[in-house]
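Kindly review both lines to help learners:
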Amino acid sequence: MKKHSRLLSFLSGTPSERDEISETTGTKEPDSGFRMSESYRIFLILMAGLLFFLPLSEALKQIFFYPTLLLGGWICHRNGFRIQKDLFFWSFFGFVLFSILSSLFSEYPATLHALLKSNWDLIRIFAFFTLLRTIPLTEEETRRYIVWPLFGGFLAALAWGVYDKYTYQAFFVTLHSIGHRNHAAIYMLLLFSVALVYLFDSKTEFRWPYAIVTALSLFGILATGSRGVMFVVPLLYLFFVFRYGLQSLKTLLLPLVAIGVVGAILVYGLHDTFFLTKLRYGLYLSGRDFLAGLAFEKWREGNLLLGIGPGNFGKIEYRELFSSLPPSLAHLPSHAHNTIMNFLVERGFVALFLYLLFQWKIFVKFLKRDSTLDRIALLFVVANGAVSMVNTTFHHENAFLMSLFWAIALGNARERRVSRKRETTNETTRYRP
């Protein structure tokens, strides 16, 4: 009976007999041997494997994903950790729920398999987000078991992509398990953000590994030729240095020098001018304005609350709304190349509102904080918002990676808050007359 009560307590968010709840904070205090347990060490190793293979192998990342999720759930249950049910949780949960409902009530009939396939990725991401908010990873654990494996997998995937490009004379670099070059560029923008934060972190002892990853992620972004991401990189960098008071002549000139050096290596060393060809288009939208308009018109004429269902944008009969596609589009793509408009037409107004609420809460939360993980979380939400205007960002590996760091940062912020309150309570008790 006790096991069943602990399981119900974990799922419902109510205290169980194993929970030790602080009277001053109302927060579960983990058992003293929690981080030394064998199951927790295995969980961290599985997490490291998952992050390493994320851009490398679809099969291996699936093999690592489910054991990590199941073992993490067991650790939460065994230690009596409770799911944090706040606005972050409910807005993300509501977004997932209404995405599923939009599939169920879609105007495009689908089999049960197709329905699960279109929503399973988001369900898994939400499950991992909830798990990593519940298990309190420290900054050191994050650096050792999340950041370093993430960098290692990226370097291996980039080397593979560069080899394929220059061996088979492809136009651009991709990361093997990420997919399209635009999605690979977004993934590398996230890696660029992580490396940049650690590079400028005063607590970082050895900066050269982070400098290498920063430079190689910039190289990879240029080699993909993804205009949306290339234009966002300097803007994201300037936001970072001004937000955290790092601006100086050296830091302001650094991106110009880095982009110039990387660009020169591509053009003169590797004879690769594809990114220059893409940059010549400037801010030309390449039909994205048409896709946004098509998404809005289709949403306006359909189910306003639930949309047409995830993954159904490519099924829209555009001739019913417009006479033809613009010359820049040879065919109707599978998504609207705009995260907000894509969510609006596919998942409806309610899901979009909950997604934007979730993003806004993340932005406001970490705009006011200044730890290493807080900085990464803030850069992720800014990068996601900027690139969302010209591409679909919040799905697959990129959504997983963003949600993972947001969850860790939220859990870490809660642990710091609880620790400060505990210290204050101890001091008050110690000096009480």
Summary: Residues 1-27 have pLDDT under 50 and may be disordered. The chain has three domains: 36-82, 87-136+288-367+401-410, 148-286. The chain is about 70% helix and 0% strand.
